[in-house]
Predict the structure.
Amino acid sequence: MSDPQIDWQALEVAAASARRHAHAPYSRYLVGAALVTRSGRVFSGCNVENASYGLCLCAERSAIAAMVTAGERDPVALVVTTNGPKAGSPCGMCRQVLAEFAEDLPIQLDVAGDPTATRRTSLAALLPDAFRASDLG
Ligand code: THU
């Protein structure tokens, strides 16, 4: 899955930078996400936890909200950076939210400070047979 037109390095930097702003005093699991849209704009987000644990916002949905707020709707690649030792994969809720805006999406999963832990996947692999607006009839 190599996309020569995607500047993966820029996304890596943006996701790592967003992760530094994570508000995760409860889990101490810091997550940053950065996506690029078809127009070339990069949007990032971090996880934002709350003392009422169920209100925690994931980094991926935070990045999607930033994209939509800016009037964009077409992400073409995503990088997520997490704690190690293994790169964390987007949760089920985030997969569904990503599927609202992309049929498929190349996704790179990074561990902060450990380039050897990087792995690539895709939204279609993570969420096959997604429920979509078209299913509403
Ligand atoms: N988290 C994310 O930001 N993205 C995911 O896809 C998985 C989980 C956050 C939520 C919470 O703040 C922390 O990681 C631990 O679950």
Notes: Residues 95 and 127 are 6 Å apart (CA to CA).
